[in-house]
Amino acid sequence: MSARVLFVTFNRLSPADQGNARRAMQMARLYKALGLEVDLLYHCDEGFDPALSHTLSQIFGTVRVVPPKVSKRVYKPEHLCHIADWYDPQLDTACREMHALRAYQVVHVNYIWYTPVQAVWTGGRQSLGHP
Hints:
Elements: E1 4-9, H1 19-33, E2 37-43, H2 50-59, E3 63-66, H3 83-86, H4 90-102, E4 106-109
Parallel strand pairs: 1-2, 1-4, 2-3
């Protein structure tokens, strides 16, 4: 059994024709080239449709789609966004359920505001390092 990676992102990964999606797909391919199994938790801020579903199923083992419930809107120009402002707590449940089924050794969060996900693996402590 190879090690498993949980990749967490909000980016629409196909087509991978711009920076964020291209970088995420490069990372997924790198993990696979290293012999790792890669699953995706897609916090679908950027839409989901049959074409995207098909593409993701060709690249990732398990794909879970979670519609966002937290707004990432900036209300005033002087608004300071903290990590917790944009973190969606329902991701904790999704991560716990996926980890219970797949026992991940690596968790890759594609953006800083997803770092609270790591608390699932660190016993509730916030960490910017490896879980």
